[in-house]
Amino acid sequence: MLSRVCRSGSPSFTYRLLPWVQSTTLSRSCRVQPSAIRHVRSWSNIPFITVPLSRTHGKSFAHRSELKHAKRIVVKLGSAVVTRGDECGLALGRLASIVEQVSVLQNQGREMMLVTSGAVAFGKQRLRHEILLSQSVRQALHSGQNQLKEMAIPVLEARACAAAGQSGLMALYEAMFTQYSICAAQILVTNLDFHDEQKRRNLNGTLHELLRMNIVPIVNTNDAVVPPAEPNSDLQGVNVISVKDNDSLAARLAVEMKTDLLIVLSDVEGLFDNPPGSDDAKLIDIFYPGDQQSVTFGTKSRVGMGGMEAKVKAALWALQGGTSVVIANGTHPKVSGHVITDIVEGKKVGTFFSEVKPAGPTVEQQGEMARSGGRMLATLEPEQRAEIIHHLADLLTDQRDEILLANKKDLEEAEGRLAAPLLKRLSLSTSKLNSLAIGLRQIAASSQDSVGRVLRRTRIAKDLELEQVTVPIGVLLVIFESRPDCLPQVAALAIASGNGLLLKGGKEASHSNRILHLLTQEALSIHGIKEAVQLVNTREEVEDLCRLDKMIDLIIPRGSSQLVRNIQKAAKGIPVMGHSEGICHMYVDSEASVDKVTRLVRDSKCEYPAACNALETLLIHRDLLRTPLFDQIIDMLRVEQVKIHAGPKFASYLTFSPSEVKSLRTEYGDLELCIEVVDSVQEAIDHIHKYGSSHTDVIVTENEKTAEFFLQHVDSACVFWNASTRFSDGYRFGLGAEVGISTSRIHARGPVGLEGLLTTKWLLRGQDHVVSDFSEHGSLKYLHENLPVPQRNTN
Predict the structure, then answer these.
(1) Where are the alpha helices (DSSP H) in 427-575?
(2) What's 363-449+472-570's CATH class?
(3) Neighbouring residues of 76: CB distance < 8 A, sequence distance ≥ 6
(4) 201: helix, strand or coil
(5) pLDDT tens sequence across 711-769
(6) Distance CA 247, CA 266 (A)
(7) What's this model's pTM, rounded to 2 decimal places?
(8) At what angle do helices 704-713 and 681-691 cross, to 10 degrees?
(9) Is residue 623 helix, strand or coil?
(10) What is the CATH topology of the domain spanning 585-738?
């Protein structure tokens, strides 16, 4: 029986290892802070730590999103992860990061185990150092420094390196885990420990006891004594697996301990369908049993015993035993600092092994279908694209009852879960569907010459002519919340512009989105391209979708400011078009019309307060305070039950003021409004530039000179004179519909309709022209003549 008392400057506790801990080599670090202890129970005065499991082990997780429920986790660190590039010594920074992540998960109440390589590399470093030191000092001095650097180092036997490196490797782990008040224990195993029944029970008991005491077991093959692996003896079935490398060890350990998740870290991003680095290699997001024939394996890693094929075999063996598996990159400096925690959070990292195949295509397959379908859309005649959109408009009215029934289900399920403004966005009605149909027909009419329109023609030289023409952007990803009416609008714009489309709607509108997408595909089917518009129904997280930079060309978020900010932050290498906030201002000038002001303020604030183009801040010229006009504004807001927040200057003029605003940069999205006082039109402009979001800003005045000054100097996407902020909309602008409102300064700004979904390409037509003909001594000269452009059809 082993007994040990731990002390760390605070009350100590004693733990004991039971009598059956006898055949396994064991060492550990002893510092445990009481704050790290989960629950302490006592049986016969033997305290130990227990962590209740959150799930019953049986089947592996079917989806990545379920990995956050993993309680017991094995992390396998490959040799390439643990060792430096020269294979002599450990990658200390990488190891420290891994230990930190394991410690974070351990302190969340999970049970973590490590299977680690590195003893051979660490031992090789120590032995090389010892050999150099053992050389004769006289010989070293006599031979000179250069010769000393080139002194031959004998080939070091791996078992000797392992024997020399094990203690140092464990000491390093102990020191690192101690920084997080976590104990670690080393266990060295061989194949016999799994195949000898008594030793197998001893090993199992030791591991369970360590986990109950909140200790992280660090497991490795005992490479100092382990015999060579027997060929063709591993992975023959769920009950037979030889421990020939740490991949098979990790799989065997995971199944033996009924582990929820096995994370295998290597030096590649995951499993590829072809050797990584080859032109056609694609990372496999999810791998299913039986897919081995679709994978071509390359050579093994620069270090270690196993290659990717060994990892896949071990992963499938563990999966068959009920353990979920993820193979990921643990060496990349940009991801290694959070790769383990990202996997546990369910993020799309590496290759996830699953036994449950989805009913439909993966999001990667949907992206490919959207790309292919979009290219076919772009080749259709304009009349054919318009015909698809007209058919979709007809379906919206013809299938009105089915659409409203599906929407009713969404509203019933959302009742009590969504705020009133979001419920209003979610709701569809006959009038909304009729307006949608009208808007779609406008899009169809405006799409006649959208794709392939010539913007510029230039004669470069004789018989060498250049054209700039409009083309689709490619594949759009539109992410929207609580707005099922967004789906047909965006789909029609994508069809008109020849773009492939991926749609990701909120789950609160799932029934409505499903039927609207089916109707869209029905309309596309009249020309055999139903797959150009895809609705993502899988459990893909928005953050994971934003990483598909090889499949998506533009992301357009439609939803809350928080959603837009999250997408802008998550997008990796993909442009995002949209606005994060709609802080719209209205400045009431000293020369404003009494009759106009209350109508404009009411419409801008009260007509639809949840819209991004609703009024949020009302700026009033100081001369209007305590005038009948000001009183009329306040009375109207009271009648409309608008809660008023006073800006700092406005509050200073009042004896009893409304609640002072917490921030002048607030989008309320409800019947709330900030009122602030300014001394001039210039001060109003300065306020808008400081606190606005460059969305939509309005001046109310009868002075044309003042109005023009405001229109020219306010740097926002939409600037109005004597008009409601609510006009900032693609449909009201005559664009038919919009994919969103952009406040960026590149490509498109304001309500983005059909034109904003197009880019250009250059077409050059020549007759055997070469650049050398235009050199100083060449026979040709550049003309650069502007040629007439075909007139755009505006009918």
Answers:
(1) 430-446, 486-497, 510-524, 542-545, 561-570
(2) alpha beta
(3) 114, 115, 116, 246, 247, 249, 250, 262, 263, 264, 265
(4) helix
(5) 999 999 999 999 999 999 988 998 877 888 888 887 888 888 888 999 999 999 999 89
(6) 10
(7) 0.73
(8) 20
(9) helix
(10) Aldehyde Dehydrogenase; Chain A, domain 2 (3.40.309)
